[in-house]
Amino acid sequence: MNYFKQILRFAKPYKGYAILNIISNIFYALFSGLSFMVLMPLLKILFDKETEKVTEAPHYEGFFELGNYFSDFLNYQISEMAGTDASKALIFVIALILTTFFLKNIFNYLAMYFITFLRNGVLKDIRNELYQKTITLPLSFYSEKRKGDIMARLGTDVLEIQHSFLSILELIFREPLTIIFTIIYMLTISLDLTIFVFVFIPISGFIISLIGKSLKKKSDKVQAEQGYFLSLLEETLGSLKVIKGFTSENLFFNKFKESTNRFFHYSNSLLNRTNLAKPTSEFLGIVVIGVLLWFGGTMVLVDKSLEGEQFLIFLGLAYNILTPAKAISKASYSVKKGNAAAERVLEILNTTSPLKDKPNALDKKQFTTSIALENVSFKYEDEHVLKDFSITVAKGKTLALVGQSGSGKSTIANLVTRFYDVNNGSIKIDGQDIRDFTKQSLRNLMGLVTQDSILFNETIKNNILLGKEDASDKEIIEALKIANAWEFVKDLPKGIESNIGDSGNKLSGGQKQRLSIARAVLKNPPIMILDEATSALDTESERLVQIALENMMKNRTSIVIAHRLSTIQNADIIIVMQKGKIVEQGKHQELLEKKGVYSKLVEMQSIQ
Fold first, then answer.
1. What percent of the chain has pLDDT over 70?
2. In Å, how far are 119, 167, 172 from 123, measured between CA atoms?
């Protein structure tokens, strides 16, 4: 129930609908039992060949005689209205029954109508908060998470919460109230018979509860497996070129088939256990009715302590209890299934980000002097990627980072943008630790161009607008010109309104990279971070992108992570890194003259 309480907080904004639902359910429960009680005069009319006129109003003789009082009162009213004409009495009783059932179903609909807004509102809010948390959690959270598993939590797990936990919201008042009102009506007919019924109901409820004990464990397996095969599907769609190139279709198909087979067995086990609830509860219900027929029949035929029509109405009321009782037992299974889904959803919602802004974090608006890394040490897992690393970049200068893969170049970009926090040391902008700033204001000062051109299945215009949401078409075209991208965009049939496909796959690598640069240009940040922006390009594309980068870096502070050394010859300072440490630093010509590591790297690339 702990998970249920946490999920229930999402219902608070919709408490008005919950109150209306409760009121509707109260009237539904009232008329649900009453619809059986009004049958009593009809049965009396049908069983008695002649309807005698009742001339005196009945007297109330206590709660446990209320059933008789109610029946006699209706008979008295019928006699007053219809006289001794049985057909008129019959019409009146039928009209009364129809009215009662009509009101019962009207309030049933209203209860469902109001709960719909609550259920769908909670579903919407959980999804929104889950998505918001997904995009605000740091990159480190997803280093061991599969994207498909996150998608499964946001999709199927949230739906499971709606179908399980939120269905209980319908039952919290509706079914218990129906049972309570029905019991009250039963007590007015016969105290002995009601006590007899409630000896058997707890026994049957206990038997039913035994079935659901393993449901959460089985549901856990089903949802985890669903997350796995969705991840596999997502990876497959993103890697089709490699899969086909290595003729690995069968390998991936077998993986997927193994997963769906496991899902098949887990689902069968879960559903068979769940499906056992209905026939079990129905059979136990009939057993209760059977025993009730024996005991009540004795009271009618032998003891003569109960009227025949009263006993029939009592049977109807007893059966009226079984339906909500079965719904409650079914809901207990839903809770167990919903627990597994809620646990997976709340795992993300309850995760605290280590990169959370300080309570008094500053809103950094301008960059004025320098970026400084002071004795920075950092590790992703066990091994340090950076050790006591220090460097200062003055405003307007370009710092280039070179070195072998794994030397820590991209880590510096991740730390400066605060995708990760340093383990030791500090990173300062204008002399103040970046952890003192809000993440949003810090990143607003920076433009990022990565090795992989991350574009969206949108128009060129909408991709560029990520840099500045309110930019005009004129500003977009100007950014495209600076990024050397306008030359191909202007030739497209729809220009900047052209859709570029999934991940920009309608464009070449060089074109995609130039759009990424245009996006950063439009943002117009004072600090630019280029993470191997040309390493994946051919020579011609590299030349065009390099011109675009040089245009973009004018009058900006830049940190350039370079694989191709030809692109950083004009940098103000070049840092050569090995295993997280600085081994050389200086300008291009100075480093060549040293005949050290940098000189060897340049020589190796020129040979290539």
1. 79
2. 6, 12, 18
